[in-house]
Amino acid sequence: MRVLLLTPPMIQLNTPYPATAYLTGFLRAHGGADLHVAQADPAIELFLKVFSRETLKTVWDELRERADEMGLDATFEGAPPPIAHFLRNGPAILDVVDAAIRFLQGRDPTLALRIATRRMLPEGPRFDPLRAHDTLPWAFGALGTHDRAKHLASLFVDDLADVIREGVDPRFELSRYGESLAESAASFDALQEALDADPTLVDALLDDIAEGLVDAHAPDVVGITVPFPGNVYGAFRIARVVKRRRPTAKVVLGGGYVNTELRSLTEPRVFDHVDYITLDDGEAPLLALLDHLRAPDKPLLRTFVRREGVVRFETTEALHDIPHRDAGTPTYEGLPLDRYVSLVEMLNPMHRLWSDGRWNKLTVAHGCYWRKCTFCDITLDYIRRYDGAPADVLVDRVEALVRETGVTGFHLVDEAAPPAALRAFATRLLERRVAITWWGNIRFEKTFTPELTHLLAQAGCVAISGGLEVASDRLLARMEKGVTVELVARVTRAFADADVMVHAYLMYGFPTETTQETVDALERVRQLFAAGCIQSGFWHRFAATAHSPIGRNPELYGIRLAREPTVTFARNEVAFTDPTGTDHEGLGAGLRKALYNYMHGLGLDDDVRVWFDDEAQGRRRLGRHARGAPRRTVPATTVPPDFIARALRSDGVEAGPPRRPRRA
Fold first, then answer.
1. At 12, phi and psi to the nearest 5?
2. How far is CA 31 from CA 319, 542, 555, in A?
3. Which of 147, 314, 429, 651 could form a disulfide with 459 if both were Cys (CB 3.0 to 4.6 A apart)?
4. Is-contact 496 535, C-beta < 8 A?
5. Is pLDDT above 70 for 618?
6. Cα dihedral 420, 421, 423, 428 sign
7. Could you give the 3-state DSSP secondary structure of residue 90?
8. Whether the predicted pLDDT of 660 surpasses 60
9. How high is the pLDDT of residue 653?
């Protein structure tokens, strides 16, 4: 039996998504002697096809023809700015695009010297911020030529992605493809309509890639991982090609999107394209499915299937999930590791770790050891079922992956890596003299003492991320986070003092959150940056999900869920009404702008109200410094100016270095 495992577009471009690597390693160890398992990544192949001279020449010809039909002159005034720039500079762009991609793949590093001069790559609208305020010397200094060139080449790719999206296929983005078709889509209608429509240029390229993979591997089973809404449309396009090209092959869907959004699936049309859909951890259900295909009397495990025109969910208590310690070592064999593309689009230190460089993926433990946060999908298996692996097993996997890939960088992909397990992992790395670089996600809990953070750093930890969320003790208690803002300050400073970069996940719009609490949260965040506790962050808008305690018991959190449509396909995010009435949409822009400046060490001496004042923001956009007494649209903070400093002093720590009172 021949199994082919695929990752559909679009997803991160710098490193393979780990699902197929984990399943390939597992099936090769447990699937039987008659099983041949291969993996491929149509996502990176589609990116490389789109951003090539050949494809972009086709795009340029088509857009020029359209411009002629519209009667546009040689300046292409009236066209969207990315398209106008592309049409004006088409030949120059076509001459350098292959070289720019080669550089971002790490295949031609000497190009950095030319790209960094800003005379090689035609610069479109994505370069406007650099024209208004050149942050390159600040970000990269006099010697950061390679990084500077990487950032410029990434902006060049962003310009081209805008051209593809606005001129060829509105569903296409660098990290997602047709996301709006699948995100909490109660009905399958929109996806079905898109699949039945005439293919766009991007669709046709993906179809060609899928046909080539089917012809090359002649699979009996094709497993497609669907981690995010932005992978769903691509997954179904690939599935259609498989069914057309090799009708006897069975197509299986699984992954994060399936596990969260398709648990209420009743739509039979889905199974015109796929044969099976598995839920939760894929190892045991996929192994059971392969046994079922060999012997149909054997049961399925957590699997949707259509029988006699009706969608049925079949499972058995006779089968159980594979313990994490026995899941085997992931393998990247078959994936084109030298073809992935490193991007530096944003001058955000944590974003760079996500998008730049090759990282092997490793899971310390399945699930979350805390599993109490009320906004989280703690009722689902990927969080609810906690299962760790011994430190020696993890280090064995590390050594095997380093031997296979030659890469010593690791991203720990846990929901929240347990402190005890990290201590054991770090200790064994040091004892066995295994030198790697690694980063991952944690909870900012008291167990991360200065002693432990220094141990982790000594063992190769360079960055961690964790949820500070609303930065309000009242709301953190409502979330059941098990932390306070003062505790987060002490933990994050302990990591920073160990030279470990800290990224904070931040949230606004939590049920019953007031404007005052949002302003106070930003003030605490400002003080955390000023004190050197955190170096990176991102504000997320709160969303209630169907599988979280808030989504299941909204009345306990002071909100009312909106009436939902009949769900036959996807269900995850649920709309709600918060009687508190805070204008979260109006506050979001100010939060994001403030955070962007704080990450650059700017604006840290300013009253946080300036970020929410429309008049002040307008003067900043015009390049004038917003001083004086602007009209205030939000209340003053009630947080003492030395709140974080006092929290740190209670641990014997002084606040961070002085900061420059400027803004980006």
1. -55, 145
2. 15, 41, 47
3. 429
4. yes
5. no
6. positive
7. helix
8. no
9. 62
Q: Give the confidence band of 638 by pLDDT, cuts at 50, 70, 90.
A: very high
DSSP state, 409?
Answer: E
pTM above 0.90, yes or no: yes
Instruction: Return the axis-axis angle of helices 485-497 and 450-458, rounded to nearest 10°.
Output: 40
Alpha-carbon distance of 118 to 112, in angstroms, equals 10
pLDDT in tens, 59-75: 999 999 998 888 887 77
Per-residue pLDDT at 615 exceeds 70: no
C-beta separation of 539 from 507 below 8 A: yes
**In this structure, what token pair is assigned to residue 202?**
């991007």
**Through-space distance between the first and last CA atoms of the chain, rounded to whole angstroms:** 58
Q: At a CB cut-off of 8 Å and minimum separation 6, what does 193 contact? A: none
Residue carrying structure tokens 């471009």: 13
CA of residue 599 relative to chain centroid, distance: 19
The encoded tokens of residue 45 equal 């192949």
Cis peptide, bond prior to residue 10, ω within 30 of zero = yes
Question: Distance (Å, rounded) from C-alpha 432 to C-alpha 460?
Answer: 13
pLDDT at 143 over 70: no
Question: β-strands 409-412, 172-173: how paired?
Answer: unpaired
Give me the mean pLDDT over the 636-645 stretch: 96
Biggest CA pair distance of the chain: 78
**Nearby residues of 79 by Cβ (< 8 Å), 6 or more positions away:** 67, 72, 87
Q: Could you count the other beta carbons within 10 Å of the beta carbon of residue 565?
A: 9
pLDDT score of 142 more than 50: yes
The full length of the chain comes to 664
Q: To the nearest whole number, what is the mean pLDDT of the chain?
A: 92
Structure tokens at 531: 């004190």
Please give the residue that has the higher pLDDT: either 35 or 345.
Answer: 35
- The DSSP string of 560-617 is EEPPPPPPSS---B--EE-TT---HHHHHHHHHHHHHHHHTT-STTS-GGGGG-HHHH
Q: Tell me the two tokens of residue 229.
A: 């809404």
